[in-house]
Write a structure and sequence with these properties.
By secondary structure, the chain is of the alpha/beta class. The protein is built from ten helices and 15 strands. Helix content is 36%, strand content 17%. Bound molecules: NADPH dihydro-nicotinamide-adenine-dinucleotide phosphate and guanosine-5'-diphosphate-rhamnose. Keywords: Lyase, NADP, Nodulation. Its cofactor is NADP(+).
Length: 373
């Protein structure tokens, strides 16, 4: 029997890798996408299957996590074996600007799905994965963080995700639903949204190297994170739903680096030697030397990075470091891609895009570059 999965957030970073992974495993994959005024399926266009073909195994449904009747209808039509709730307003800084919306999508969205499962009598047949997050630990009570470390969320996003975490546990305990939380630490890839810190750095520096931009404005570059690769992490999301009994797992690499280190790695990939000068909001990064042919627009002495307090958060999560021992012991999971290798992959992809944009610009075809931050 072909297994059926339903993915909320299929158009996002993780959703796209998970859809690929499940299609390769032979699943019929259903995804919920939001109606937008522009196409929003770029991350999954390469796996598109024509719905007119009767054998299509990838199907998209219009929907939204704020709309329970829509979610209930889709669940009743698809009757999935597995639901992966990856949809979210996932940007921590944005959650301070839109706290109520973030709660509606990230907290209530999880409840709406679980209630739909219960309402439709799918408790014994549909397994549920909740995209929980290391942001739950916030102001950390111990290092490294494990499944038993107390939570202290530090943003409207994290507080909303805390509700989703507990409602998932509650529906497991109250109704016997096979429901799991993956407490995932930061994971990135060339498909990472452009405004998260890693991608902002790799894309920003690649554009500067090619003369498409001049300076990168950053917030707290001393923040410490445990960064993994999204490909490794979606494999784990599936593994969690294949166990005999549902459980919650920390997914992390167990290694920690600063944003500053990630900037240095990215610059290094472009042949740029950087020197940080100054302190606090006056800190800058200056080009010391350039080697190779990846950064033709730069000269020693150029300032390529400045601090902009606009990117400081009202409450910051300074440090996160996960301990994935439980996932390793119970599921045999090991991350395969290191943070530095992932950085190299992201820079290579962004450099290729920047070089293409440079060629177009040089021939008078430059399109306006999106610089949303
Ligand atoms: P992205 O921001 O890349 O993707 C989020 C997805 O959710 C997109 O498909 C987006 O649609 C969709 N979405 C947003 N709002 C709604 C809504 N109201 N209704 C339905 N769908 C919606 O996130 P990631 O792929 O990086 O993360 C996946 C999940 O994992 C998220 O829940 C995130 O909070 C969580 N997480 C992520 C971590 C990470 O480091 N990446 C770590 C821990 C947890 P659209 O494309 O239209 O915007
Ligand atoms: P995070 O990721 O908040 O950890 O949430 P993000 O990449 O946005 O920030 C990481 C750290 O970098 C600091 N920082 C900046 N961040 C951004 N976005 N832009 C900047 O200019 C900047 N300068 C410094 C931040 O202050 C922070 O400390 C991500 C999301 O994917 C969540 O959905 C997920 O739950 C967590 O990871 C785990």
């Amino acid at each position: 029997m072909t297994k059926r999965a339903l993915i909320t957030g299929i158009t996002g970073q993780d959703g796209s890798y998970l859809a690929e992974f499940l299609l390769e495993k032979g699943y019929e994959v259903h995804g919920i996408k939001r109606r937008a005024s522009l196409f929003n399926t770029q991350r999954i266009d390469h796996i598109f299957q024509d719905p007119h073909e009767s054998h299509a195994r990838l199907r998209l449904h219009y929907g939204d996590l704020t709309d329970s009747s829509n979610l209930t209808r889709i669940l009743s039509e698809v009757r999935p074996d597995e639901v992966y709730n990856l949809g979210a307003q996932s940007h921590v800084a944005v959650s301070f600007e839109a706290p109520e919306y973030t709660a509606d999508v990230d907290a209530m969205g999880a409840l709406r799905l679980l209630e739909a499962i219960r309402f439709l009598g799918l408790e014994k047949t549909t397994r549920f994965y909740q995209a929980s997050t290391s942001e739950l630990y916030g102001k950390v009570a111990e290092t490294p963080q494990t499944e038993t470390t107390p939570f202290h969320p530090r943003s409207p996003y994290a507080v909303a995700k805390m509700y989703a975490y507990w409602i998932t546990v509650n529906y497991r305990e109250a109704y016997g639903i096979y429901a799991c939380n993956g407490i995932l630490f930061n994971h990135e890839s060339p498909r990472r949204g452009e405004t998260f810190v890693t991608r902002k750095i790799t894309r920003g520096l690649a554009n500067i190297a090619q003369g498409l931009d001049s300076c990168l404005y950053m917030g707290n570059i001393d923040a410490l994170r445990d960064w993994g690769h999204a490909k490794d992490y979606v494999r784990m999301q599936w593994m969690m739903l294949q166990q005999e009994a549902p459980d919650d797992f920390v997914i992390a690499t167990g290694k920690q680096y600063s944003v500053r280190q990630f900037i240095q790695w990215s610059a290094g990939e472009l042949g740029i030697a950087l020197r940080f000068e100054g302190d606090g909001v006056d800190e800058i990064a200056v080009v010391e030397a350039v080697s190779g042919d990846k950064a033709p627009a730069l000269r020693p002495g150029d300032v390529v990075l400045r601090i902009d307090p606009r990117y400081f958060r009202p409450a910051e999560v300074e440090t996160l470091l996960g301990d994935p021992s439980k996932a390793r012991a119970k599921l045999g999971w090991e991350p395969e891609i290191t943070a530095q290798a992932m950085c190299a992959e992201m820079v290579a992809a962004d450099l290729e895009a920047a070089r293409r944009a440079r060629i177009l610009a040089d021939h008078g075809y430059s399109a306006p570059m999106s610089r949303e931050d």
